[in-house]
Amino acid sequence: MDRAEYLRTHDVPYPFIKKSEPGKRVRLLTDDGTRPALEIADLFHDVSLHQVDRFFMQVRRSIAGLERAPSYPRRASRKWYLYGFYSPEMVEKTLTIYQTYFNFIAKGKDGKTPAMRIGLVKGPVRFEDILYH
Question: How far apart are CA 60 and CA 70, in angstroms?
């Protein structure tokens, strides 16, 4: 139980440095003290922000207004956001539309949407059902 309390309250440095996650630290919030040390080591090894970073990249690449601006050497590192939103409200609206599409309409490799995987819907939702609700 002392180990479980320590893992819940302290960040443990990850010993294997990766280029994509330097200085990674892990906190195991769900340890109840019954897991063997090898299982905890496996959990720490599998922890990653890769999927979160991939999703953010998908959002940036899918919505033109959120795309990262290119930098040009002749412009003294100034950036120009060609499709940038002029109103923060439009960012929120666009992200809500994308979130709805991603969770309820877009199917993964397994043929299911994220909403299907957690049991919110039985099948993919059609655009028409959302627009004309």
Answer: 13
Distance CA 114, CA 107 (A): 8
The answer on pLDDT for 118 being more than 90 is yes
Identity of the residue numbered 78:
R
Residue whose tokens read 């309820």: 104
Secondary structure class of 105 (helix, strand, coil): helix
Positive or negative, the Cα torsion across 9, 5, 31, 119?
A: negative
pLDDT (tens digit per residue) in 40-84 = 888 888 888 888 888 888 888 888 888 776 666 666 666 666 677
Q: Are 66 and 82 in contact (CB under 8 A)?
A: no
CA 132 to chain centre: 29
pTM score, two decimals?
Answer: 0.62
CA distances from 10 to 15, 22, 33, 100 (A): 15, 18, 15, 36
Q: From CA 15, how far away is CA 22, in angstroms rounded? A: 10
